[in-house]
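If you are new to this repository, start here. Below is one unmodified record pulled from the training split, so you can see the exact layout before writing a loader.
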Amino acid sequence: MHPPGNEARDPDEDGVHLPSVEALTAGTLALMTGYAQAAADCPNRSLMARKLVSNLFFLSGHPHVSPPMRTMLDNLRTRWQLAAEAAPMAGPDRQPSPLWHAAPVSVQ
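And here is the target side for that same chain:
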């Protein structure tokens, strides 16, 4: 017997453990907040947007989500996919900041 509220942690028919809808929703909302508060040139924006797309995909397929909610989540995922594609990617071509420290020539 599981404590109340842990039903979503039970394995489905394939034996796969799914995260609870609440945990996935909380993580997604936190990512949305971080994305909204990050500067436009933040190197992590594209990573946050791609993770949001992933979370929305898994939320829309979660067995505890109603069909109307699935439709809404699919629509959100489409919009976030466009944001993920438009966000600049973090990469080695970024210019160093004056706050960066030079890498040491050797490690002791």
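Two things worth knowing about this chain: The CA atoms of residues 16 and 91 lie 35 Å apart. Residues 1-11 have pLDDT under 50 and may be disordered.
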